[in-house]
Amino acid sequence: MTDKPLADQIALVTGASRGIGAATALALGQAGAHVILTARTAGGLEQVEEAIYAAGGTATIAPMDLTENESISRLAAAVAERWASLDMLVLNAASLGTLSAVAAIDFKEFAKVLTLNVTAQAAILASFDPLLRKGRQARVIGVTSSVGRTPRAYWGMYGASKAAFDNLVLSYGEEVRHVSGVRTAILDPGATRTKMRARAFPGEDALSVKPPDVVAERIAALMVAGFETGHFERVDA
Q: Catalytic: which of 53, 154, 158, 172?
């Protein structure tokens, strides 16, 4: 990549207070994009914002709970007031839920997982669709999990939500590909050193899996190079 290949472009990253989201926001900022950071934790967002500025980039934080009614539409309205378009969207925020047998699923918890992992994602795409269509060949990348494509025992709740998420993102891409420059892709980060991974695999040596920076650099590279709707890849170190 050249020094600032994403200069003068606007990116929105969800779940940007830590892990893959934070690393991706930093990578996009270093590549020249102005990054809008969203997550529930204001303190974490502020730290990422400071890191982006320290690296010579710029960012705006927007602390919010994506599951709250009207929060997404308010954010879209606020972004539209300041910027004419949105060039990049990274849908990274997600909830793991409790790993359990399908027969033992807590359906109240399942509803909460689906609200964040699917319903909120649909709301983001709907609310930012006008701005994405105005972007310069806007790119949307959905961060998924292998269990969305390959079922695994006790991962039914999370896997089902990710299967729905993948379909949602790619369906949106098919709807707009012939009437706009918007393109959508799905990226499976593979085994990555995150808080979610540590919760799912409590006995695993964290140093045995790659850091989030590896995934972030791949996402940034895809944003620079571009891709066609339907693109899928897994990041293996």
A: 158
Torsions phi, psi of 83, nearest 5? -125, 150
Give residue-wise pLDDT tens across range 46-93: 999 999 999 999 999 999 999 987 999 999 999 999 999 999 999 999
Distance CA(14)–CA(64), nearest Å, equals 10
The answer to whether 158 is a known catalytic residue is yes
| Measured distance CA(9)–CA(82) in Å, rounded | 13
5 within some domain: no
Task: Check which CATH number belongs to the domain holding 207 and give it.
Answer: 3.40.50.720
pTM score, two decimals? 0.97
SS3 143: strand
Residue 215 in domain: yes
- In angstroms, the CA 184 to CA 172 distance is 8
